Each structure stands twice: as C-alpha cells, then as structure tokens.
Amino acid sequence: MRWMRCSSASPGSRPGSTRPRRRPRHRPRHSAVDEGRQYNPRYMSDPADVVPSSASAPVRDDVPLYVDLDGTLIRSDLLWESLLSTAHRAPFSAALGLLELRHGRAAMKRAVAQRGGVAAASLPYDGAFVAWLREQARAGRAIYLATAADAQLARRVAEHLGLFTGVLASDGVHNLKGPNKLAAIRAHCLATGADAFDYCGNGAEDLVLFAAARRAIVVNARPKVLAAARRGADVALVVDAQPAGLRIWLRALRVHQWLKNLLVLVPLITALRVSDPLALCEALVAFAAFCLVASGGYFVNDLLDLQSDRRHPTKRDRPLASGRLSVAHGVAAAVALLAGGAALGSLLAPQFLAWLAGYAVLTLAYSISIKRHATFDLIALAALYTVRIMAGGAAIEVEVSFWLLAFSTFLFFSLATVKRCAELVSMRTRGETVARGRGYRAEDLEVLKAIGTATSVASVLVLALYVQAPDVAHRYASPRILWLMLTGLLVWLSHLWLTTARGQMHDDPLVFAMRDGTSRWLIALMGAAFVGAVLVR
After folding, report:
1. Residue where one domain finishes, among candidates 400, 430, 463
2. Is 196 a member of any domain?
C-alpha cells in the first residue's frame, strides 16, 4: 500500500498552484503518512491490532473529516456482506429483503440490514488507513462516518472502531449516496458550525464530494476516479492499494483444485479408449466444463463463508475473505464461471449436462447447508468426487462399472474424513472444542479416525476383489501387476492417516499430496503399475 501526500495547499486552493510547499519543522520519523514511503497491504479482521505511530500527534486540524465506509474504510461493501450473510442462513429471507427494492434502495438496505448479521469485528478493514485515522482522532480532530450503508450497520462499525465522533448513514428512506450525501454533510456542517470539511472516499459517486471538500483523501480508487478527482478537487492524500492481479485471481479460482477434475478422465482410461480421438476430445471438453463449474462453486462457497473464513487462522487470507478481491467481483465471477461451464457442457451428451448440473446443485447445497451437518458433509464430499467419474462416463457414453463406483465411493469418503480430521486436530491444537460452521466437536476426532481408516481398508479390499474377478483378467495384458498398484494404495492411505494423527496434514489432502514427496512417489508407482498391467505381456 502506498501513501502519497499530494498537496499541502491552504484551504480553498486548487491543483496547479505554484505556491512552494512548506515542510514541517519536525516530521515524525515513523509517521504512517510519510511521503513516498511504501507499505505492504494489511488486511486485518480487527483494526485495533494496528498500533498507531508512537511519534508525536499531528497538528490539530479543526476542519471535520468525513469518511466513506464501503471500499474506503473496509475493502468490501456492507450491503453485499449482509445480503450474503442472510442468504447463507436463510435464502428465502434474503429474497424478501431484495423485494423491498420496489420501495427504493434505502428501504432495501434497511430490510437486508435487519435480516443480516454482519459482525463488525470480522470485516476486512484497511489497517494502515485506520491507523492514520486513529492518529487524526488522537490529535483531537472530529471524524464522522458518512456512508450510503444502512445506519444500523454503520453504527456497529463505528462502535467497534471507537474513533468516530458521529455517523451519517442511510435511514431506510434517504439513500446517502453522491449528491444526497453531500447535502447531508453540508447540513451537518451548518448545524455544527463548521465552515468546510475534508472527505475520504474511493468511488466515482464520491467525485461530487471531493469537489466540494476543502481537501480530498482518495483511498483505493480506480485510476480513472483518481485522475478525475485530481482534475476537479484538491487531492491532499492518496492511499493506493495494489489491484487484484493474476495471482490473486488464480488463488480465488483455486486452479490447483482442477486436479480433482482429472477424475472425469478415469472412465476414458479404464475403458482403454485413450487412443480414440473423438472420445479423448469429449473427455477434455468435460474436464474443462468441470473446471469452470468447480471454480464457480468455490467462489459461491467463499462468498457464503466470508465471516467464518475471517475467523479461521488460514482461510482468513483467501482473496475474498481478506478483501483483496471485492465481493461484487466474486459474485460476477461465480455467475460467469457457472454459465461458461454450462455452455461447454451443452456441447456433450445430455446425460453429461445432467451430471454437471447435479454437481453444481450439490456444491451449492453443500455450501449453504450440508457442510454444517456431521457425516452428511462427508457423504456430500465423497459424492462430489464420484459424480466427476459418472459424468466422465456420460461424456464418452460408456457405463461406469460397479467396481469403479464402489472403489471411488469408499476411497473418497476416506479422503473426506482425512480433511475433517485434519481440521479437528488443528482445532484441538488451538484449544477450541467446537468447529465453527461445522457439525463437529473435538471429541469426535477418534470416531472419525476409525470411520476413515475403515473406509480406506474397504477401498483397498474392493480393488483386491476387482483384480481377482474372472471377468477382469482378460482386459489387461498382465493383471497381476495390478497387485503392485494395490500395495501402493495401501501404503499411501496408511501414510495419510499417520500424517493426520501427527497433526501434520494440510486441511486439503490434495494440496498435501502435491507437496509431499512420499505421496508423489506412491501415486507415480500406482500409475506405472496400471500402465504396466495394460501394456506389459
């Protein structure tokens, strides 16, 4: 994050003045607004963690400071936050709140605010900007929160931060945005006897306020907005954050999770049709469709889990939870990805599109409700894996065998249990007894371990029975080599459970498998054994 002091003009001056800038006689050595100093972005669940400068307080400024909320004080939008919070708990109630739009935006905001339980402490505050505001408040300056968000939510934020003199916000009748906010600020200044005001904002709707203010503080604005502000206002300070780049988007898409979608290719491989160009193309299109829909599902899950993710020790760094990616962009991305996946799926057999739609519905149901119910969440996670295999069979129009279906069900149920056990081990280490947003307690760990190891053994047993089945031997050149694959699977699953018991398992077994050397070697061994069974005579 870059702080840049743009002007030190006197009240009423405008850009372009040739008056030389007067340097203060005593500049604090560690001020949060040192000119030209570079700052790394900080996204904090609690801005109280930002310790103000230990330097002497800035010179008192009697001109009141009005601060925007959405996109300025926080890297999010309270309307989206409260709407998603309500949709997570009660989707029908969220829809009723949106219907109030017929009475105006202010009425809709009030209805959504009354239904949504947004925790002010968990919002993604701009930590460095909050620290600067604390310095201004410490110097005795009057600071007011002026926002188009509903007053009920705005007051929660103001009470949490404890640095605002007062709050100006939408009241269910008047939507305090753009000219309406300017009129409210002018009326407030008149009532308090202030002749001028400074304003902190970030959006195009704030340009009219920048122009009317004595000085403008532009926070995290788009380049076009910043350029327009500089043309029409006295921009005294710019708080410039790094935009969401490709790396942030790739993290939000969870590209590494696309490896799971390789399961779509399993029927192609087990049916020994890899050499069929048409079947191969159909399988690759199916893979791409699942990648888009899966990423859309991850966006939906992250949007619905914003508040719980922000309280999680690692998930709080996710792009949406941390505010590095806006909620509005997340919603747009989810819609675009799901639509793109459906468009690709429509190129294949209708049965594939049905499986793809079922996957999307199950993902949404998991995000909204299923994951909060013990055991049912494990079944859903295992089903999401198995559906990929069934869809892969539908894409190339081959029937998935009983053996493959039984094996995948037990194996993926076991991997889902590994995931939950890893989370419970981490939770126990932190001294917590109940998993937030999940239906598990710390004492469930031992039972889950027993269930998980049992299903692991069941998957190995199914594979052993498959290898020995009379109708399978003729499909492979050397079916006995498959015993090497079975051995590798048994060792790998045992390795996963030992690692989980020791508290060393990542909360995503797939990520662990990619990073763990032992897992990579064992998976390579299993793949080589399968290829050998097919080709070696």
Report:
1. 400
2. yes
Indicate if 179 and 250 belong to the same structural domain. Answer: no
Q: How many helices (DSSP H) and strands (DSSP E) are in the chain?
A: 22, 9
Residue 345 lies in a domain: yes
| Percent over 70 (pLDDT), the chain | 87
List all residues 6 or more positions away from 219 whose beta carbon is below 8 Å from its beta carbon. 68, 71, 72, 126, 129, 200, 201, 202, 238, 239
Q: What are phi and psi of 66, to 5 degrees?
A: -110, 130
State how far the Cα of 132 lies from the Cα of 134, in Å rounded to an integer: 5
User: Do residues 232 and 210 touch, judged by C-beta distance below 8 A?
Assistant: yes
Q: Which domain covers residue 327, as residue numbers?
A: 244-400
Q: What is the torsion angle, in degrees rounded to the nearest 10, for the CA atoms of residue 477, residue 483, residue 484 and residue 488?
A: 140
Number of domains present in the structure of the chain = 2
pLDDT tens, residue by residue, 207-218: 999 999 999 999
- Counted residue by residue, the chain has a size of 537
- Check whether residue 303 and residue 326 sit in a common domain: yes
- For the stretch 27-48, pLDDT in tens is 333 333 333 333 333 333 344 3
493: CB partners within 8 A, 6+ apart:
414, 456, 459, 460
In whole angstroms, give the CA distance from residue 508 to residue 415: 9
What are the DSSP E strand ranges found in 109-259?
125-126, 143-150, 166-170, 198-201, 215-219, 235-240
Output phi, psi for 478, to 5 deg: -140, 80
**pLDDT above 90 for 96:** no
Is the same domain home to 139 and 288?
A: no
Classified as helix, coil or strand, 397 is coil
In 206-349, where does DSSP find H-type helix? Answer: 207-212, 223-232, 246-253, 266-270, 277-304, 306-310, 319-322, 327-345
One-letter identity of residue 393: G
Residue 417: pLDDT band (50, 70, 90) is: very high
Whole-angstrom Cα Rg for the chain: 28
Element (H, E) at 360: helix 350-368
- Structure confidence by residue, pLDDT tens digits, 167-182: 999 998 899 999 999 9
Give the number of other Cβ atoms within 10 Å of residue 292's Cβ: 23
Between 14 and 468, the higher pLDDT residue = 468
- Tokens representing 391? 């869809």
- Judge whether 507 and 314 are in contact, CB under 8 Å: yes
Distance CA 385, CA 365 (A): 15
Q: Which residue has the tokens 């017929």?
A: 102
